[in-house]
Design goal:
- The chain has one domain: Vaccinia Virus protein VP39 (Rossmann fold).
- The protein is globular, with a radius of gyration of 17 Å.
- Strands 1, 2, 3, 4, 5, 6, 7 and 8 form an 8-stranded mixed beta sheet that branches.
- It contains 10 helices and 8 strands.
- Keywords: Methyltransferase, Transferase.
- It comes from Actinoplanes utahensis.
């Protein structure tokens, strides 16, 4: 895709997500795809908000455990609270590198993703499917101390990598250079709790946005070679639930999440 080409006539996952969360950084094609998905799964915004809370809970736990370097791959459009805001409130000196490959995300990230602490926040224009470019970037090689643990976060992005072997390969390559004690946090789409959700998956695919829904066992397999922290792979609102998670209907949440250590 040429630099700066927003491809506004084609739906984009980050902009669909933005629309479903009530944002304004989306176009007619994104809104049309989102409304089609809502016809099948009207609780999608509930699920997406639960997923944002999972991100915040996961990175808070890791920051409290002493992790000070975060590589967030597949960032999407800035949506408060952003990962660095959560992390730097716990650890002001933490370093965060955001990664995405959408020009609209790039524009907004550069404008909005400013530190709330003393640590650095940077944005890398790169593709999840090209870990080599991510890992050899100045943001990683110069921004991180590779002798210290790094948390790699893949929040609501791996559903767009529809082949399990490719997804595991991406995870393995992203984690390879980081030392023991590094962490992997991810959340992935499921329809285990509601087969009607397959209509939403089909809507994404029919609009040119590849999506696959995985079972719990399928998500657990993405953590192969890593040590899962309690409570393992669970619906995101059941992962260290907060007051906001209490009372959320299980049938309204279509994401599994988990955090593991290397």
């Amino acid at each position: 895709m040429p630099p700066g080409d927003l491809q506004t006539d084609r739906p984009h996952s980050a902009r669909i997500y933005d629309y479903l969360l009530g944002g304004k950084d989306n176009f007619e094609a994104d809104r049309r795809a989102a409304e089609q998905a809502l016809q099948h799964t009207p609780t999608l915004p509930i699920s997406m908000k639960a997923n944002r809370r999972f991100m915040a809970k996961a990175v808070t736990l890791l920051a409290e455990r002493g992790v000070r370097q975060f590589l967030d791959v597949g960032t999407g459009l800035p949506t408060s609270p952003n990962l660095h805001e959560v992390v730097q409130r716990v650890a002001p000196d933490a370093t965060i590198v955001y990664v995405d490959n959408d020009p609209l995300v790039l524009t907004h990230a550069r404008a909005l993703l400013t530190p709330v602490g003393t640590g650095a926040v940077s944005y890398l224009d790169a593709d999840l499917r090209d870990p080599g470019t991510i890992l050899t970037s100045d943001a990683v090689t110069e921004g991180f101390d590779l002798s210290r643990p790094v948390a790699v976060t893949l929040i609501a992005v791996l559903q767009h990598v529809t082949d399990d072997d490719q997804a595991r390969d991406i995870i393995g390559r992203l984690m390879a250079p980081f030392p023991a004690g590094s962490a992997l946090a991810l959340s992935v789409v499921t329809i285990d709790n509601d087969e009607a959700g397959q209509g939403t998956v089909n809507t994404y695919n029919q609009n040119g946005v590849p999506v696959v829904a995985r079972s719990r066992a399928g998500v657990e397999s993405l953590f192969t070679g890593f040590t899962l922290l309690d409570p393992g792979v669970v619906p995101v609102h059941h992962w260290h639930p907060t007051a906001e998670d209490e009372g959320v209907d299980d049938a309204a949440v279509f994401m599994y999440g988990g955090v593991a250590l290397k």
